[in-house]
């Protein structure tokens, strides 16, 4: 079984890219991916458009077994708008996590609006995935220390392992805080191996981020897991089941 914890459906106005439901299903079927956690891209920052994107992902997840939604809401929306959409996604649409993209949402994770994401995650008892790497200084994993310290009960997934260049900061947080986990999409095999070694294969999850990257990411892990087969189940699905509180069917 392979669970991809970082996939997108929709259009992105920050990075200028898009992926459809068909793109995702095709590539996952071709590569033997069992399912995954699906989030929107960064769309235009309006609550009504955000709701539409989440509805689209909800339809996809209800139609296809082993797919779950992750909500991505601009933290600069009015507090009541952010909270209402977070509530709706988790309680009505059965989404399993929140996403914060410091570079796309123009949010400093240490700011009040950044903290508000974790406040909602605590209230709704779901994990937060945070983009790291591209988009310094907001995307420096060191910016997540404050949230890790203030919200020990909120599971946090550091996405992209700091895009490799900030891998050490991300690994240190995962070693220091029991609720902090890592995903390594877009990173080199060296940094991925460093994260797995530092955590003995625990707290690191497989992910692709892009349909273009699924094959590369799988190959990266194949190379590592051939040498360290004991890490395989945790990395490919078991840790994700625990972090997102889901059960693969
Ligand atoms: Zn992404």
Can you describe what's shown?
- By secondary structure, the protein is of the alpha/beta class.
- It has one domain (3-244): TIM Barrel, CATH 3.20.20.
- The protein has helices at residues 21-31, 47-63, 79-92, 102-105, 112-124, 145-150, 167-176, 189-198, 214-227, 232-244, and strands at residues 3-12, 17-19, 35-40, 67-72, 97-100, 128-131, 156-159, 180-183, 204-205.
- The N and C termini lie close together (10 Å).
- The structure holds zinc ion.
- Zinc ion binds next to β1.
- Zinc ion (ZN) binds at residues 6, 8, 209.
For this entry, give a set of tags.
single chain, 249 residues, alpha/beta, TIM Barrel, binds zinc ion
Would you spell out the secondary-structure blueprint of this structure?
Elements: E1 3-12, E2 17-19, H1 21-31, E3 35-40, H2 47-63, E4 67-72, H3 79-92, E5 97-100, H4 102-105, H5 112-124, E6 128-131, H6 145-150, E7 156-159, H7 167-176, E8 180-183, H8 189-198, E9 204-205, H9 214-227, H10 232-244
Helix pairs in contact: 2-3, 3-5, 7-8
Bound molecules: zinc ion.
Bound molecules: zinc ion
Q: pLDDT below 50 for ≥5 consecutive residues: which ranges? A: none
Strand order of the largest sheet: 2-1-3-4-5-6-7-8-9
Radius of gyration: 16 Å
Q: Regarding CATH, which class? A: Alpha Beta
The CATH topology name reads: TIM Barrel
- Give me the strand/helix succession: EEHEHEHEHHEHEHEHEHH
Short description:
The protein has 249 residues and is an alpha/beta fold. It has a single domain, classed as TIM Barrel.
């Amino acid at each position: 079984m392979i669970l991809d914890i970082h996939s997108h459906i929709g259009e992105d106005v920050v990075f200028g890219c898009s992926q459809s439901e068909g793109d995702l299903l095709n590539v996952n079927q071709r590569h033997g991916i069992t399912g995954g956690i699906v989030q929107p891209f960064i769309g235009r920052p309006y609550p009504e458009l955000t709701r539409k994107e989440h509805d689209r992902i909800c339809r996809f997840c209800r139609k296809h077994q082993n797919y779950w939604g992750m909500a991505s809401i601009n933290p600069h929306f009015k507090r009541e708008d952010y909270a209402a959409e977070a509530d709706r996604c988790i309680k009505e649409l059965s989404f399993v996590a929140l996403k914060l993209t410091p570079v796309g949402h123009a949010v400093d994770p240490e700011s009040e609006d950044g903290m508000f994401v974790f406040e909602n995650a605590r209230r709704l008892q779901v994990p937060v995935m945070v983009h790291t790497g591209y988009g310094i200084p907001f995307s420096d994993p060191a910016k997540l220390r404050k949230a890790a310290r203030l919200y020990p009960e909120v599971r946090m997934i550091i996405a992209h392992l700091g895009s490799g260049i900030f891998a050490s900061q991300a690994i240190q947080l995962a070693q220091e805080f029991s609720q902090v986990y890592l995903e390594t999409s877009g990173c080199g095999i060296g940094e991925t191996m460093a994260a797995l070694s530092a955590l003995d294969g625990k707290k690191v999850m497989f992910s692709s981020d892009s349909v273009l990257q699924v094959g590369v990411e799988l190959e990266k892990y194949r190379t590592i897991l051939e040498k360290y087969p004991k890490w395989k189940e945790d990395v490919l699905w078991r840790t994700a089941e625990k972090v997102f509180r889901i059960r693969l069917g």
